From TrEMBL:
GO molecular function, one term: S-adenosylmethionine-dependent methyltransferase activity
Methyltransferase type domain ranges (all copies): 44-140
Keywords assigned by UniProt, alphabetized: Methyltransferase, Transferase
Record's protein name: Methyltransferase domain-containing protein
Record's keyword annotation contains Methyltransferase: yes
UniProt organism field: Phaeovibrio sulfidiphilus
Keyword Methyltransferase (UniProt): yes
Lineage: Bacteria, Pseudomonadati, Pseudomonadota, Alphaproteobacteria, Rhodospirillales
Domain of life of the native organism: Bacteria
Length: 250
């Protein structure tokens, strides 16, 4: 297995690949204030194994296009969609969120939880805008500094991992600069990181290492994840995932 296949194997064993929760997806949906009088077209970008797509497909009269770069995640998403009885509402597309095969103004909603960092926040919201109808809604979660002060150890770690990490007010400004009107945001509660993401992932470390013969590569993945989790346990008050709801200008 190469390093990408190992990472996919690592994250495939859990229900979600980033912080979040069904209740928080529903909360964002309420804040989005969608016109539910007609069927909606929604793109879920960086969908992973489907944590948000399954909620959206169950809650709404909508057709979803779920995009992820790794086909094994999409395979799991389709199996989960069958189990939930929503498979006829979800189409999966294997591809990169920075070269999407969509038409202009194709979607009422673009949704992306815990994934835009892969292409960068400003780049993502800029390049996705054309696929939204005028007045369409963007819901995107992004790692965000909470407040203006933070410990140096934490700052250095995240600026290395993701230089675009910034405060909520800066993210709002970036949305405005790219033709969106921010409508709402909220910060995911701790349990979205701990109960819904880190703890289930931690449970799989042993079996993951065993499957891969305790290889150096597999151990490096686990160790990197443990470092990220340790920092959250220590400094979680200083940063979080914020969910931003914004409307594309008419
Ligand atoms: N939305 C899911 C997954 C978040 S993890 C959840 O909240 O659980 C980030 C996801 O982005 C992973 O599934 C990863 O495979 C996907 N990804 C990474 N780079 C990508 C790219 N360039 N284009 C599309 N998907 C990408």
């Amino acid at each position: 297995m190469n390093s990408t296949e190992l990472l996919v194997d690592f994250f495939r064993g859990v229900a979600r690949q980033g912080p979040g929760g069904d209740a928080e997806t529903k909360r964002a949906l309420e804040l989005a204030g969608l016109d539910r009088s007609r069927p909606l077209r929604i793109a879920d970008l960086g969908c992973g194994t489907g944590s948000s797509a399954l909620v959206l497909a169950s809650e709404l009269d909508a057709t979803l296009t779920a995009v992820d770069i790794f086909p094994p995640f999409l395979e799991d998403l389709r199996a989960r969609a069958r189990d939930c009885g929503v498979e006829d509402r979800i189409t999966t597309v294997a591809g990169s969120m920075d070269s999407l095969p969509f038409q202009d103004s194709e979607f009422d909603v673009i949704w992306s939880e815990g994934a835009i960092y892969n292409v960068g926040f400003a780049n993502g919201i800029r390049s996705w805008s054309r696929f939204l109808k005028p007045g369409g809604v963007l819901v995107v979660s992004e790692i965000t500094w909470l407040g203006s002060r933070r410990p140096q150890e934490l700052q250095s770690y995240w600026e290395w991992e993701y230089p675009e990490i910034d405060t909520t007010s800066s993210k709002m400004r970036v949305l405005e600069q790219h033709g969106y009107t921010p409508c709402a945001y909220f910060v995911l509660p701790d349990r979205c990181w701990l109960d819904n993401y880190y703890h289930p992932l931690k449970e799989t470390f042993g079996s993951f290492l065993e499957r891969h013969g305790d290889s150096d590569q597999a151990r490096a993945i686990v160790e990197a994840q443990e470092r990220e989790m340790g920092l959250y346990e220590k400094y979680g008050a200083y940063y979080g995932y914020a969910v931003y709801v914004a409307r594309k200008a008419l």
